[in-house]
Write a structure and sequence with these properties.
single chain; about 110 residues; alpha+beta; Hypothetical Protein Aq_1857, Chain: A; six-stranded mixed sheet; about 45% strand
Length: about 110
């Protein structure tokens, strides 16, 4: 299972409303690539696939495919809006190595 911080939930909800996808889902996943091996994915979906696991956080539905779930177990998705920029942050206890920008990782 993953965790999604309250700040990330609020930002996801804002994005879904702004995109007129209030009943939609946010997909969290991984794909091969990036400088460390895997890259995180965040995307808006209108429906879930059969193989998706669905998690709900304060009304926001998060989809994760079974392949990604292996690498995302225990991850916390957070949102930061500090002086150095804003965006979603993945706190991944499974990552053995990460790139400098934090967008890719290796296990």
């Amino acid at each position: 299972m993953i965790q999604v911080s309250d700040k990330a939930v609020d930002k996801i909800r804002d994005i879904l409303v702004a995109e007129s996808k209030g009943d939609g889902y946010i997909r969290v996943g991984i794909k091969g690539g990036g400088c460390s091996g895997f890259t995180y994915i965040l995307d808006i979906e209108e429906k879930q696939d059969e193989s998706d696991q669905v998690f709900e956080f304060n009304g926001v539905k998060v989809l994760i495919d079974s392949k990604s779930m292996v690498y995302l177990a225990g991850v916390e998705l957070d949102y930061t809006d500090g002086l150095n920029g804003s965006g979603f942050v993945f706190n991944n206890p499974n990552a053995q190595n990460t790139c400098g920008c934090g967008n890719s990782f290796a296990v």
